[in-house]
Amino acid sequence: MLAGNKIDYRGRHSFVTGGSQGLGFSLAAELVERGSSVTICARNESKLVAAVEQLEKHRSSDDQFIKYVSADLTDYQATLSAVHIESPPSLIFCCAGCSTPGWFNDMDIETFKSDMDANYFSALHTAKAATRAIVDNDIKDAHITLVSSVLGFPLGVPGYSSYTPAKHAIRGLGDALRTELKLYGIHTHVYFPGTIYTPGYETENKTKPALTKKIEGAADGLTPEQCAKALLSGIDKGEYHITSDFVGSLIKNLSRGASPSNNVIIDTLLFIIAAIALPFWRMYMDWLVTKERKQRTPN
């Protein structure tokens, strides 16, 4: 069981990627309300300007600063400059990313490369640049949070072949950093949300196969605000792998490996439930795909 260490956000500087909309924006708003200064980072400057105006409404102290930096996080040097543009942050949230669903056989190879850049390499670059800033400035009690997805667990949902590998890579990065960054007193967290009702979700639905939508329809999504609160709650509890719903907790505990448990008793019970239930869900997905094949190639 992990010991919680609730963070006092007052006087902190939080750096949030993907902060112009969706989870990143809602997380930034929650951080501002809790007293943290915030720098949000994304590509689109006009969206960043609008986001900062909205974040000002959540300000809890005149001592806070709320700023933005426009940067291409797929470029490491640009990311390095972005992280160092203001006073070094002690709380880093890697929320930037996107999904381009489609059938593996139909998608252009460039889609796989761009999804890996937007999701994995943006997180890698941010974590690397932030670690350098934290170590160089001897910042104490720093936290780096990577945002993966429930698809970062071994699920294999059809339609996400360009997105799933990137989210698995983020989990792998987190596993490597969790132990190594203890050298510098840095806490590492990985968040695995399910469906989040964001503008990005609306965009991905434009290319998402009907079969994928049908599979996702079995699970309810959450708002960005709900996910932001769940993420910060997990950090305050000292959790490494953080989920925000029951299904995510089931999948997490069946595939935790050597990762630390959040609560030995509860996680063991969830493991037992998942070991019984998830094979049936996998068989349901296999059945849907087989049905799709028969519809495509009728006798």
From TrEMBL:
<dbReference type="InterPro" id="IPR002347">
    <property type="entry name" value="SDR_fam"/>
</dbReference>
<dbReference type="Pfam" id="PF00106">
    <property type="entry name" value="adh_short"/>
</dbReference>
<dbReference type="InterPro" id="IPR036291">
    <property type="entry name" value="NAD(P)-bd_dom_sf"/>
</dbReference>
<protein>
    <recommendedName>
        <fullName>3-dehydrosphinganine reductase</fullName>
        <ecNumber>1.1.1.102</ecNumber>
    </recommendedName>
</protein>
<keyword id="KW-0472">Membrane</keyword>
<keyword id="KW-0812">Transmembrane</keyword>
<comment type="function">
    <text>Catalyzes the reduction of 3'-oxosphinganine (3-ketodihydrosphingosine/KDS) to sphinganine (dihydrosphingosine/DHS), the second step of de novo sphingolipid biosynthesis.</text>
</comment>
<keyword id="KW-0746">Sphingolipid metabolism</keyword>
<keyword id="KW-0521">NADP</keyword>
<keyword id="KW-0256">Endoplasmic reticulum</keyword>
<dbReference type="GO" id="GO:0005789">
    <property type="term" value="C:endoplasmic reticulum membrane"/>
</dbReference>
<comment type="pathway">
    <text>Sphingolipid metabolism.</text>
</comment>
<keyword id="KW-0443">Lipid metabolism</keyword>
<dbReference type="InterPro" id="IPR045022">
    <property type="entry name" value="KDSR-like"/>
</dbReference>
<dbReference type="GO" id="GO:0006666">
    <property type="term" value="P:3-keto-sphinganine metabolic process"/>
</dbReference>
<dbReference type="GO" id="GO:0030148">
    <property type="term" value="P:sphingolipid biosynthetic process"/>
</dbReference>
<feature type="transmembrane region" description="Helical">
    <location>
        <begin position="264"/>
        <end position="284"/>
    </location>
</feature>
<comment type="pathway">
    <text>Lipid metabolism; sphingolipid metabolism.</text>
</comment>
<keyword id="KW-0560">Oxidoreductase</keyword>
<keyword id="KW-1133">Transmembrane helix</keyword>
<dbReference type="GO" id="GO:0047560">
    <property type="term" value="F:3-dehydrosphinganine reductase activity"/>
</dbReference>
